């Protein structure tokens, strides 16, 4: 990873130099990336540090296109304009829960094995895939190479991050013997059933069916194992709670609601600040408290370690709460259908 960090710094330096010189570093919509001002240094790095074939890279980036719709989409993420009461309606629905049960029934063996192997409940794995791609029915229509090239070279705000992801993408397609021009994903370059970014794919995706391929695009078994492995590697604790509703005292410490996603307090410390869990939890359990605007007004919540793990998948409390609540609805419906 240190090589990628050095490369990101060189890209940022190149951007600054070109800006001072008054030169444009972007291409027009629908043009390819072969002649982009930053492409030469980037290709040099791929050839020197990762032993890619220069002619092959030039062919791929001649085919890669800037997409203005991607820049428009990433500049206005939908979540920022929504309250919890509206966000929840999108993901925590009867239809999504029912489809989740069908997905569970169809892939019950893989889900049972993933739960046993990684300690992550089947309903949580199903809910992630349900929220991300409607159980694999919508995995994105952008070519990944277009998405990552656009964001790496024409979105300076996050260029270092997407430049790294583009490199990871090219490496994983080489490792998996896949054509980088053929793979599709989201406008941000997320891929497959679980919408893994390329770096996450390389770090956490697994061959869960033993066919010696790691395929999260078309193989739901690999996708199930990969989501479970991601959660396990990020600290999921088996048989522990995720979240609890919280009650507040009149003089509660409002500053406690402004903590970062990672648990900053213990349950006991939050109680001393006038925020207590409705459910029973160990006083020493790591926790954070937060407030959301629900359909009936303010809602206070206490997220535990496993809730934090869900936010590692998407850095949003509303996302994590949607996944949790959907998972609970799926579990209830599944149990009812199988007579548990």
Give the SSE map.
Blueprint: H1 2-20, H2 39-50, H3 54-63, H4 68-75, H5 84-91, H6 94-106, H7 108-118, H8 122-133, E1 142-143, H9 144-154, H10 159-175, E2 184-185, H11 198-204, H12 220-233, E3 243-248, E4 265-266, H13 267-272, E5 275-277, E6 286-294, E7 297-304, H14 305-313, H15 317-338
Antiparallel strand pairs: 1-2, 3-5, 3-7, 4-6, 6-7
Helix pairs in contact: 1-10, 2-3, 5-15, 6-8, 6-15, 7-12, 8-15, 9-10, 10-11, 14-15
Model description:
With 340 residues, this protein is α+β, with helices and mostly antiparallel strands. The protein has a domain of 115 residues: Orthogonal Bundle (Helicase, Ruva Protein, domain 3), CATH 1.10.8. It is built from 15 helices and seven strands. It has a five-stranded antiparallel beta sheet. A hairpin with a 2-residue loop joins β6 and β7. α6 crosses α15, α10 packs across α11 and α14 packs across α15.
Quick synopsis:
With 340 residues, the protein is α+β, with helices and mostly antiparallel strands.
CATH architectural name of the domain at 2-66 and 141-190: Orthogonal Bundle
Query: How many DSSP-defined strands?
Result: 7
Structural class: alpha+beta
Strand order of the largest sheet: 4-6-7-3-5
SSE topology string: HHHHHHHHEHHEHHEEHEEEHH
Number of helices, counting only DSSP H or I runs of 4 residues or more: 15
Give unreliable regions as ranges.
Answer: 1-29
What is the molecular shape? Answer: globular
Beta fraction: 5-15%
CATH class of the domain at 2-66 and 141-190: Mainly Alpha
Q: Enter the CATH topology name of the domain at 2-66 and 141-190.
A: Helicase, Ruva Protein, domain 3
Mean pLDDT: 91
The CATH superfamily of the domain at 2-66 and 141-190 turns out to be Bacterial muramidase
Q: Rg, please?
A: 22 Å
Helix content: 40-55%
Q: For the record, give the distance between the C-alpha atoms at the N and C termini, rounded to a whole number.
A: 47 Å
> Main β-sheet, in a few words?
5 strands, antiparallel
């Amino acid at each position: 990873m240190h090589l990628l960090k050095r490369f990101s710094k060189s890209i940022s330096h190149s951007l600054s130099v070109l800006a001072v010189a008054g030169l444009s570093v972007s291409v027009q919509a629908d043009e390819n990336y072969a002649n982009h001002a930053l492409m030469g240094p980037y290709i040099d790095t791929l050839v020197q540090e990762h032993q890619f074939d220069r002619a092959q890279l030039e062919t791929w980036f001649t085919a890669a296109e800037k997409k203005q719709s991607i820049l428009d989409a990433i500049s206005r993420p939908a979540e920022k304009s929504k309250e919890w009461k509206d966000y929840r309606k999108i993901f925590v629905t009867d239809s999504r829960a029912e489809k989740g049960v069908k997905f569970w029934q169809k892939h019950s063996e893989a889900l049972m094995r993933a739960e046993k192997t990684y300690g992550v409940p089947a309903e949580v794995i199903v809910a992630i895939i349900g929220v991300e791609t409607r159980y694999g029915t919508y995995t994105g229509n952008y070519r990944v190479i277009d998405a990552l090239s656009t964001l790496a070279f024409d979105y300076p705000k996050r260029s270092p991050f997407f430049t790294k992801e583009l490199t990871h993408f090219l490496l994983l397609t080489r490792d998996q013997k896949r054509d980088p021009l053929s793979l599709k994903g989201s406008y941000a370059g997320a891929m497959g059933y679980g919408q893994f970014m390329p770096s996450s794919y390389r770090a956490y995706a697994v061959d869960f069916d033993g066919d010696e391929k790691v395929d999260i695009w078309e193989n739901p078994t690999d996708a199930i194992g990969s989501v479970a492995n991601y959660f396990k590697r990020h600290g999921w604790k088996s048989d522990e709670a995720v979240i609890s509703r919280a009650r507040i005292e009149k003089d509660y410490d409002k500053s406690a609601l402004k903590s970062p996603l990672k648990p900053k307090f213990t349950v006991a410390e939050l109680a001393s600040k006038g925020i207590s869990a409705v459910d029973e939890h160990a006083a020493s359990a790591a926790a954070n408290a937060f407030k959301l605007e629900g359909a009936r007004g303010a809602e206070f919540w206490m997220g535990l370690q496993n809730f934090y793990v869900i936010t590692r998948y998407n850095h949003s409390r509303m996302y994590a709460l949607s996944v949790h609540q959907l998972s609970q609805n799926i579990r209830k419906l599944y149990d009812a259908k199988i007579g548990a």
